[in-house]
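Hi support team,

I'm opening this ticket because the web form for multi-chain structure prediction keeps timing out on my end. I have pasted the exact lines I submitted so you can reproduce it. The total is 1002 residues across three entries, so I didn't expect it to be a heavy job. Is there a limit I'm missing, or should I split the entries? Thanks in advance, R.K.
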Amino acid sequence: MANVSESAQGDVAHDGHDDHAHGHPDFLQHHFDTPAQQFDASKLGMWVFIATEILMFGGLFCAYAIWRGLEPEVFDQAHHFLNKILGATNTVVLLFSSLTAALAVRSAQVGKRNATSMYLIITILCACVFLVVKYFEYSHKFHLGLLPGHCFGHPGLSASIQNGEEVGTCIRSVQGNASSVMPQWVKAVDESGNVQLLPPRANMFFGLYFVMTGLHGLHVLVGMSILTWVLIKNMRGDFSARYFTWVDLGALYWHLVDLVWIYLFPLLYLVGKPE
Amino acid sequence: MATNHPHASRADDGDVHVHIASTQFYWAIFGALILLTLLTVRVSYYDFGSANIIIALVVATVKASLVAAFFMHLRHDKLFNTLAFLSAFLFLAIFILLTYDDLGVRGQRRPSYTSMVDPRTGEPAPGGEPATSATSNDVQGEAPKEGSGAEKKKE
Amino acid sequence: MAAIDIPLVGGHADEAHGDPHANYLKAKRGIGSWMLTVDHKRIGLMYLTMVCIAFLVGGVFALLVRLELFTRGKTIVDGETYNRFFTLHGAVMVFLFIIPSVPAALGNFFLPIMIGAKDVAFPRINLLSFYIYLLGLAVILLSLVLGAVDTGWTFYTPYSVQTANSVLSMTMGVFILGFSSILTGLNFLVTVHTMRAPGVTWQRMPLFVWGMYATALIQVLATPVLAITLLLLFSERLFGIGIFDPKLGGDPVLFQHFFWFYSHPAVYIMIVPGMAINSELIATFSRRAIFGQFAIAMSSVALAILGFLVWGHHLFVAGMSEFATMVFSALTFLVAIPSGVKVFNWTATIYKGSILWASPMLYAMAFIFLFTIGGLTGLFLGTLSVDVHLTDTYFVVAHFHYVMMGGTVIAFLGGLLYWWPKMTGKMHDEKKAKIAFWFVFVGFNTVFIPQFIMGSRGMPRRYYDYLPQFEPFHKASTIGSWILAVGLFLTAYTLLEALWSGKNAPRNPWGSAGYEWMTDTPPCLANFHSTPIFTRGPYDYHLATPEELATGFDPVEDAPAAKQVAKADAKK
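Hello R.K., no limit was hit. The queue was backed up. Here is the completed structure from your submission:
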């Protein structure tokens, strides 16, 4: 009881530097004993969260694995309709943003506030580039009618066929009920300008493509928001060489986003029969 | 006092101590990642059959390991963080494998069940499946012969 | 003996957080101090209130289901409405009550205390998880208003994709609740790894904490797959992705794989905490060190891990490949082993122990009996050839009610009665609690034993109407539900009555050696007045001092528990 007085003062200095006069820094929360304990706990918490995200995306990878095993020809043919170059560009952009995120953490670890801000800004800009490229990819698909589920075979598909070529039956063209007929072979123009045949059930590939990249894109948006918030906090001076936890955690989330893409890119864009 | 705590940091002062890599090191890792990306894209233009997907996954795993070990600092972090990360993949593997051992072998019959004959009477076992059966892959959709693979330009 | 001489350090113990030495219920006042609290004890109480309300709602649906089944044909409602009743009973009970019940209510309250910490690792995330729970609850209520779901709580495709009923809002509610569960699990994992007080080694850690740790492992690893399952269901409904639709190349059984990959580990989220409470009750009320303490701890973790390998046993007749059914059946037998370890160890603890027959002990004993029945009947269901006959019958219904209700709910009630004095500072009336127990026990068995019999004779589950030969069983079961309801209401009354007219509870009314009994009753805001160092295990009755074990009751007063404890001490 007699030793309570030390912690009860709680004089706060809001510049993020520790308060030696009172023996504990103001970034240390009341239920932790030391900054090391707090840091270890925060990191472990983030890694457990990352594990949950891996399992969530993993469910989609499971669906991919099952369908790929059962319908290899769908995957072999349909992936030509994804643009490898844009996909590779996005991969490079995300890898670069991962680098800058790691450098941001490093700058925070050595207490260089301005460098941290700079690297965070570059990371966020890379994320924007990623989303812009994604937008172009998606809009091209919508134009071609390569949409998920019910929407597959949008009338735009027939517009892309050369004169006189017969178009296969699209789902939509059958009376009303969108899911009453399995799609037949359909002709469409792929990313290289060739007329390709889409096998039946190619809608499955595009369904998976949109759900997987869509969920990933959502995580890119969330990652951008987190990094923006960390940037704001950094510019306010909340971080130092003693306390940079949030920069670290924000960067970890960003690396997770990159990790998912590292697997998404080859599995969706690259694997299949080359032309 | 910090020494008594089960979670004790490496130093006794309770402060945070981390391994700080050099900027050049991070750029070097980035360089390796770019090289691996170029490799995997290049490989995708050749047909190695079923090895394609294995190569793609191996390269992806190497890239992911580099990101996790160095960009995410797992290499110099507490071991349990790595365990948490890897256990997610372990359980994912269990999920995929055991689900695949259903969906991947659906419709396949063990020969002993379909061709069982009672040794005393020579009668086939009751309740078996008829001899001819369709598997789940057997649906309409053979590729029309014309136009498949034609009109292709080498990229 | 716990030496309590290290000064409290760390953080700001100022008016924003309240005086760390004040009783946590009184440290700060006003509704705002509860709505914005980051104190794990207050959050635990708020969760407790909400799960009890959820239990009431789910229970009302259960009573309605049983009332409808009292006679053949229509009794009170038509078939469509009946389908909604049993769906809601299942969904509310599973997602709103049983999964959060022990971890979020009792776990939140006691886990930090039992490891000598001041709070969980992330108190604000703890509060966030509570608000996410409330949001999920609101969305599920919305689904009720929008027409309610009749798919069964399992949402199997293709019906759940095609039906016009409010599947989206119900599954959205469940999706949101999943995040609450994940955040609770994450918090507990990190707390146990990084915030144990000096002397709380992994070997010494109380078994309740081990149970919460194993549960947290499952919550963190399994719930994300539920999230993706529901996301795929949304995509299927909204966009017709086709992953579960055979006409588009999909497979409805894939939904079942995805769903049960979460939902089987989820049943371990339900039972492992119940077993964890039971370990505490058995040790305290036998007044002995628990037999095979580390084995019980490891069996909790083993259940958590093995529980991930057996989900296919819910799909035996769904059209799975033969090979998969055999693999899953074999693994299902394996998962029975850790439960067996616990039951044997509890029995060995009770043997030659000094038994105190307080109401929590009645529940603990009932747990062993009822859980064993539930677990053994699970083995029948895990046997492929037998399962062909028993699947989707009332046998399955009785099996899982024996483990979930006869297991978890019984342990939950026992834990509530055990820890009520510590949480509230008031002693409840033991006599009423014991009478209520007998109503619960008799009522429960009356509901579900007829269901085992019916099920083995072919009565299918989820059926609105049935053949005449099952009518006596249904009638018995319904009457049992009324007896059970009386017992549960009486228990609730006993606990609530204690709040306004119970005597003030002493620090350690049951004479337990557990760590949580060393704090004040009710605990102070920071749990301990200074960081404790624990020099003995929580079940080391031979090392505990008489002061630590003193119940604080005046033997002259009307407190049967104290008399028995005094007698037991006199024997030593």
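A quick check on our side: The first strand of chain C starts at residue 2 and ends at 6. Let us know if the file doesn't open in your viewer.
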